[in-house]
């Protein structure tokens, strides 16, 4: 299975998720006999209909921190840019409109996003080159296009899921829209890839709690995992709002009403659970690490990187990558500040001579959206941008 291969090849999360690994082994043995799970996702007709409705009703994606991205990428006429998460194409469209004769390589793992990129490519002949694949597949995709390492002028990496995915109920990402509990960013590209319903209906309580703790930083992971196991004994959990109700019912009202988002608005108590499942299903942290490594390989010396993240796990990973940490040896902790201890002091001692040999930060502190941008696009309120120059 794809998840197993990435976990074996990158020991980053292996020890943290030992319980999860064992549970997946049991799940794999029963793969062909299990009847539990959400619908496999939208078929070709449904995906086409969803794409049509997205493109005609409203813009599918509002680009986050567009002004800052354009500033720090510093793209010049005639350069080649890699947009590693095309999404709805907001950043790419702005680049095409503002910089003459630029070429954009548009990567995304979501077939629906690539359909949008193909439409944009028709409107900008030769300037947009769609690439369907994950961050971990980028090296092969670029090699097939005869794009050499060290030849890209600027790279934008926008982590997480897009507004377009959140707005399509049938994708199963949203808490506010009822749909099948899917959450696979790749759609139907990998038939053996488990969806979120497979996770919540198959893994044991310990494994579920491990996922919620590691990927959602959920303080009440054990209570929620216990409630999920109890609920699925009555009926399989196959819908998004079904899972949200189970999570909400597992915690006292005082806990549920106390949760606020970054705008101090009431936040659903299941938000962290949904985040954790989405990250686990899509192997997002390993993919983000693979994307950062790929960006380092394809950028020319003097090229610019902008990496946008949407939660603390992603931001810590990007921060530590850019400062030169060896992430291949992080199997004993999960990007958590609580687990650094003496290791943090040791790393600081090792880097007294100036930090990473590969990256020069373009701004010392992380960049966050301005208040006006948050009002216009509330979904970008938690975004953080880190910009660096390839040495």
From TrEMBL:
Region annotation Disordered: where it falls in the sequence: 370-391
Q: Where is the composition biased (Basic residues)?
A: 381-391
| A GO term for molecular function | rRNA (cytosine-N4-)-methyltransferase activity
Q: Which residues form a coiled coil?
A: none
Q: Where is the composition biased (Basic and acidic residues)?
A: 370-379
Q: Which InterPro entries match?
A: RsmH, SAM-dep_MeTrfase_MraW_recog, SAM-dependent_MTases_sf
Recite the UniProt keywords alphabetically: Methyltransferase, Mitochondrion, Phosphoprotein, S-adenosyl-L-methionine, Transferase, Transit peptide
Q: Which residues cross the membrane?
A: none
Compartmental location:
Mitochondrion matrix
Give one Pfam family, short name only. Methyltransf_5
Reaction(s) this enzyme catalyzes, per UniProt:
cytidine(839) in 12S rRNA + S-adenosyl-L-methionine = N(4)-methylcytidine(839) in 12S rRNA + S-adenosyl-L-homocysteine + H(+)
**One GO term describing the cellular component:** mitochondrial matrix
Which Gene Ontology BP terms does the record give?
Answer: rRNA base methylation
Q: Which family does it belong to?
A: Belongs to the methyltransferase superfamily. RsmH family.
Query: What is this protein's function?
Result: N4-methylcytidine (m4C) methyltransferase responsible for the methylation of position C839 in mitochondrial 12S rRNA. Involved in the stabilization of 12S rRNA folding, therefore facilitating the assembly of the mitochondrial small ribosomal subunits.
Q: What protein name is recorded for this chain?
A: 12S rRNA N(4)-cytidine methyltransferase METTL15
Species source reads: Seriola dumerili
């Amino acid at each position: 299975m794809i998840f197993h291969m990435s976990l074996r090849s990158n020991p980053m999360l292996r020890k943290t998720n030992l319980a999860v690994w064992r549970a997946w082994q049991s799940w794999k043995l029963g793969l062909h006999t299990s009847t539990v799970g959400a619908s496999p996702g939208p078929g070709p007709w449904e995906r086409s209909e969803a794409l049509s409705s997205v493109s005609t009703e409203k813009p599918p994606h509002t680009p986050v921190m567009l002004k800052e991205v354009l500033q720090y990428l510093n793209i010049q006429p005639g350069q080649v840019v890699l947009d590693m998460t095309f999404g709805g194409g907001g950043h790419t469209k702005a680049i095409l409109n503002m910089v003459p004769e630029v070429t954009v390589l548009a990567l995304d793992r979501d077939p629906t996003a690539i359909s949008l990129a193909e439409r944009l490519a028709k409107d900008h002949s030769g300037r947009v080159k769609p690439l369907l694949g994950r961050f971990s597949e980028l090296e092969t995709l670029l090699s097939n296009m005869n794009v050499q390492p060290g030849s890209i002028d600027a790279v934008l990496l926008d982590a997480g899921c897009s507004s377009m995915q959140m707005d399509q109920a049938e994708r199963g990402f949203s808490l506010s829209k009822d749909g099948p509990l899917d959450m696979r960013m790749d759609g139907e590209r990998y038939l053996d890839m488990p969806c979120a319903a497979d996770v919540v209906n198959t893994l044991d309580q310990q494994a579920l709690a491990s996922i919620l703790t590691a990927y959602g930083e959920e303080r009440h992971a054990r209570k929620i995992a216990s409630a999920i196991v109890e609920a699925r004994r009555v009926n399989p959990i196959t819908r998004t709002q079904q899972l949200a109700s189970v999570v909400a019912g597992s915690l006292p009202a005082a806990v549920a009403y106390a949760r606020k988002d970054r705008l101090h608005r009431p936040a659903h108590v299941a938000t962290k659970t949904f985040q954790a499942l989405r990250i686990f299903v899509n192997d997002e942290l390993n993919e983000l690490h693979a994307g950062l490594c790929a960006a380092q390989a394809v950028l020319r010396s003097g090229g610019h990187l902008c990496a946008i993240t949407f939660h603390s796990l992603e931001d810590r990973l990007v921060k530590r990558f850019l400062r030169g940490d060896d992430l291949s040896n992080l199997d004993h902790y999960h990007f958590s500040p609580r687990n650094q201890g003496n290791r943090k002091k040791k790393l600081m001692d090792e880097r007294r001579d100036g930090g990473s040999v590969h990256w020069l930060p373009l701004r010392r502190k992380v960049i966050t959206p301005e208040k006006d941008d948050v009002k216009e696009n509330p979904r970008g309120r938690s975004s953080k941008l880190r910009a660096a120059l390839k040495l």
